[in-house]
Amino acid sequence: MGTDADNVRMFRTGTHACGYWADREARDLVLDPHDPRLPQLYPQALDWGFRRSGDIVYRPSCAGCQACV
Fold this sequence. Notes:
Blueprint: E1 10-12, E2 16-17, E3 25-26, E4 28-31, H1 38-47, E5 51-53, E6 56-60
Antiparallel strand pairs: 1-4, 2-3, 4-6, 5-6
């Protein structure tokens, strides 16, 4: 039997300026901010390497770079 975490919707952003490296572009993997289970899943998301900025729970997902992970 699966867990709630098995069914979490995630979205990948388009490229944007990297907040850590001025000469790089970044992409993020974002958990569905409208998922009512997000508060309960947040501790597990931290274990998966996600971060929070306001109401957005995300992790960097850049091709060929993990310098900030």
